[in-house]
Structure of Polar amino acid transport system substrate-binding protein:
Amino acid sequence: MKLSRRILGAAASLCLMALSANALSDTLDTIKQRKKVLIAVDIGAPPYGFLDSAAKQAGSDIEAARLLAKDLGVELEVVPVSGPNRVPFLLSKKADLVMASFSITDERKKVIGFSDPYGVVPIVVAGPKAATLKGFGDLAGKNVAVTRGTTSDQELSRGVKEVPGATITRYEDDATTNTAVATGQQDYLAAAPSVIPAVRKANPSRDIEIKFVMKSFPYGVGLRKDDTALKAWVDNWVKTNLKNGQLNTIYKTHFGMPLPEEFLK
C-alpha cells in the first residue's frame, strides 16, 4: 500500500513537472505553431512608433519588431497600444511581447518580465525657452503635462512630491499629451526627448526645449514572467543583433546617435 502511494506520488510529481515545462515553453511554441508573433507597439510615440506620410507604421520599435519576427521565422502582427495599457495587454495575452519604448523599472518587474535591454531612453522635463528650470524644485507653482502610467509619470510624481504648488495633468496617450503642449494648453512637459521635435513640428511657434534630465532608463522587450523559453530566445536575439550591429543601425537611424558603448561590447 505504501509502495503504491509512493509510485502514485512520484507519477503525480512527474506530471506536474511535465506541465510546468510545457507552461514555460507554451508562448514560444504557440508563436511558432500559429506562425505569427503578436508584438505590442505604441504607434503614437515617435520616433519609437508612428505613422509615416503614407500612413504606414514606422519607427525604431516597428523596425526592431520586424527584425525579431523575421529572425524568428514568423509573420509580424503589430498590436497598437498606448503607454498605460502596455502591461494590461501583455498580461491579458492580447500580445506575446511588448516593444514600445518599454523602460525597465523595478515597479514593472514586479508584475512582468523583460529581456536584456536593446536601447536606452532618458526622461526629461521640457518647457519654454525663456523659463529657468534646472531641477524639480523649479517646478513650484507650475503645471506639467505627462502621459499616464509611463516612466515619465512615475519619475515626475516622485520628483515633485515635496515641491509646493507643483501639479501634474495626466493624459491617456502621448499623442494627446503632445497636442496639449503644442496647442498651448500646457507649457511644461515630462517625456522622452524624442517627443520635443514632434511638439515643435506640430506647432513651430512653440519654443519648447529640454530643461533637465529626470532619469535615464534602458528599455527592453516586455514579456510575461513565466515565459522562460521565450525570454531565453529573445535575450539571445538581443545579444546577436547588438553584436552584428543591426539594432545599433536602427537606433542611429531614428535617434541620430549610436547606442551607448556598453551595449555594443
Remarks:
- Residues 24-118+220-263 form a domain with the D-Maltodextrin-Binding Protein; domain 2 fold (CATH 3.40.190.10).
